């Protein structure tokens, strides 16, 4: 086991390791337990060496990644060795330890510092926004701007990461950000606090005293100390097994205690209790006696004591919600809501009022509500009970909503009736002047007119009898995938809703969950048995995607005089 040594300096890589796992940082940076280098780390070091030789001596790189990266660097042999792999070791005022590092390339001509990065994929590359708080970018920029490299830089300073991929086709990317003293000051203050925490952690006497981070065991190829941490964790919860000697002693103690006779004492016999003659000596009255807190025989448990129903997973055409695509969700909603009774549909609308979006997540929530209603987790409002005198046709002709009784009008005070004056008889219009007819002739003419008028009308009715015209039968129309003017048609689903509810009530489940022969086929037989058009309107509408149309279309089209099909 390595001994603890005094920790004096940190680096960007140490700070990154400390954030991942304090225990691994302690063993590597404080105890000096270096893990063997990984193949990826060795490849990165080789690419760095080839780029250094290219910058200082114009030696062409051999590695494909290095050749791709050199296209973004200055010409070979044009960079001074003082500007390649420049090391620094500074202790900022007030910091708990020194900060060390090595800058891959300093380019005073473009006022920037560049660091080479190798990665398996550019998906792991940092962004310009990430560089604002990146530990390496902040420390390197602070060291350069404060003159610790012996080179004067203008402000702002350009910090650049040059990425090159090591798997598949070689790809490169430049990620840069302009840095100023003011922009890096907040991040630099956070790094200062982290260095102080490192100093405090370095005072631990053993790595077991340092807090581990098990979520970082698989990062960067896996932690080399993972097995040690696992054994230490098991040691904390392992219970020591008893030895063979302890077991033998325990068994001997049991054997010796069983050989010792024990005295059994009986309580004194009590006097017999006298039974009252009023009691039922045969006991027949107590055969079905419930416990004091029991329920009467045959009664159900209260609702709060009943076991909770377990809702099965939602399935539609063999698919669960997570496997359904957006068009399938919409089709399922249309089909399931289309087969609901008016009461169930009203309950669904109330429960889904808060869902005001048409996203896949919103449709998932809508289908879950329908699923709970279908399996009885949510009970819809019960329709009004049907009287014995009600028949199928009265149910079909009853609107979905019961009309509200109109308030009786209050009688207004009536004025006292006034005696109506007798109407004056209208004078007869004759073709000759009345003055030329004698008084006797006038009286005779008035008698003929009043006496024979009714007789003449009866004779005319007997001679000319008009034939009775038969009332024409209205044309019945079935519209598929279409609409009509409001009030001129009714929905076929609402018309046959009583039949669907009757089948569901008899089977105890939704018609969607009933087998075809006992559900839709029976509904089609019931509609076919009517033989005639028995709906409220002469025009009914239905959607072709509705199960009612898919299973019963041949019967519905036989009852209609005209079938109109739209396009979808």
Description:
This protein is an alpha/beta fold and 568 residues long. 37% of the residues lie in helices and 10% in strands. The protein has helices at residues 12-20, 22-30, 39-57, 64-69, 135-145, 181-201, 226-237, 244-259, 326-338, 342-351, 360-374, 392-396, 439-463, 492-495, 497-507, 520-530, 547-559, and strands spanning 9-10, 84-90, 98-107, 112-119, 157-165, 172-179, 477-480, 490-491, 539-542, 562-565. The strands form two sheets. Strands 1, 2, 3, 4, 5 and 6 form a six-stranded mixed beta sheet that branches. Strand 4, helix 5 and strand 5 (157-165) form a beta-alpha-beta unit. Helix 9 (326-338) packs parallel to helix 11 and helix 16 (520-530) runs parallel beside helix 17. The model is unreliable at 388-403, 427-451 and 463-471 (pLDDT under 50).
Number of strands: 10
Strand content: 5-15%
Largest sheet features: 6 strands, mixed
Large-scale geometry: flat
Average predicted local confidence, pLDDT: 77
Evaluate the radius of gyration: 50 Å
- Number of helical stretches of at least 4 residues: 17
User: Whole-Å distance between the termini?
Assistant: 78 Å
By secondary-structure content and strand pairing, the structural class works out as alpha/beta
Order of helices and strands: EHHHHEEEHEEHHHHHHHHEEHHHEHE
């Amino acid at each position: 086991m390595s001994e603890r040594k005094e920790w004096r300096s940190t680096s960007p890589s140490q700070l990154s390791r400390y954030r991942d796992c304090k225990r691994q940082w302690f063993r590597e940076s404080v105890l000096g337990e270096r893990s063997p280098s990984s193949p990826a780390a060795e490849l990165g070091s080789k690419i760095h060496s080839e780029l250094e030789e290219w910058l200082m001596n114009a030696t062409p790189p051999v590695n494909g990644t290095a050749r791709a990266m050199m296209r973004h660097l200055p010409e070979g042999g044009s960079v001074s060795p003082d500007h390649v792999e420049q090391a620094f070791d500074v202790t900022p005022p007030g910091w708990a330890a020194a900060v060390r590092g090595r800058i891959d390339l300093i380019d005073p001509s473009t006022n920037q510092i560049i660091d080479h990065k190798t990665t398996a994929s550019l998906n792991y590359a940092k962004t310009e926004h990430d560089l604002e708080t990146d530990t390496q970018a902040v420390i390197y920029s602070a060291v350069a701007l404060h003159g610790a490299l012996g080179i004067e830089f203008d402000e702002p300073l350009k910090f650049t990461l040059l990425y090159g991929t090591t798997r598949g086709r070689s790809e490169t990317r430049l990620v840069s950000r302009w840095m100023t003293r003011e922009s890096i000051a907040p991040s630099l203050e956070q790094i200062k606090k982290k260095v102080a925490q490192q100093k405090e952690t370095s005072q631990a006497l053993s790595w077991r005293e340092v807090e581990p981070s098990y979520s970082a065991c698989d990062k960067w190829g896996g932690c080399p100390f993972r097995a040690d941490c696992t054994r230490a964790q098991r040691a904390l919860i392992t219970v020591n097994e008893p030895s063979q000697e302890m077991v033998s002693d325990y068994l001997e103690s049991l054997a010796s205690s069983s050989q010792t006779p024990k005295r059994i004492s009986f309580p004194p016999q009590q006097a017999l209790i006298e039974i009252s003659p009023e009691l039922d000596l045969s006991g027949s009255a107590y055969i079905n006696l419930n416990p004091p807190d029991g329920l009467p025989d045959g009664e159900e448990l209260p609702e709060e004591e009943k076991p909770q129903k377990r809702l099965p997973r939602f399935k539609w055409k063999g698919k669960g919600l997570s496997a359904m695509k957006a068009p399938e969700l919409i089709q399922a909603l249309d089909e399931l809501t289309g087969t609901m009774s008016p009461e169930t549909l009203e309950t669904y609308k109330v429960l889904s009022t808060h869902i005001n979006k048409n996203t896949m997540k919103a449709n998932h929530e809508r289908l879950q509500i329908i699923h709970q209603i279908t399996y009885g987790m949510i009970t819809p409002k019960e329709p009004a009970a049907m009287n014995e005198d009600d028949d199928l046709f009265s149910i079909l002709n009853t609107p979905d909503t019961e009309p509200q009784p109109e308030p009786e009008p209050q009688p207004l005070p009536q004025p006292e009736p006034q005696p109506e004056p007798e109407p004056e008889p209208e004078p007869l219009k004759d073709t000759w002047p009345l003055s030329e007819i004698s008084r006797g002739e006038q009286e005779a003419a008035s008698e003929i007119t009043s006496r024979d008028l009714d007789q003449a009308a009866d004779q005319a009715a007997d001679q000319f009898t008009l034939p009775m015209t038969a009332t024409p039968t209205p044309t019945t129309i079935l519209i598929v995938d279409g609409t009509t003017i409001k009030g001129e048609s009714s929905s076929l689903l609402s018309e046959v809703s009583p039949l669907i509810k009757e089948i569901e009530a008899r089977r105890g489940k939704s018609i969607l969950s009933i087998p075809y022969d006992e559900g839709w086929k029976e509904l089609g037989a019931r509609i076919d048995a009517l033989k005639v058009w028995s709906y409220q309107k002469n025009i009914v509408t239905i959607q072709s995607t509705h199960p009612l149309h898919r299973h019963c279309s041949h019967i519905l089209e036989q009852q209609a005089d005209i079938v109109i099909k739209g396009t979808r």
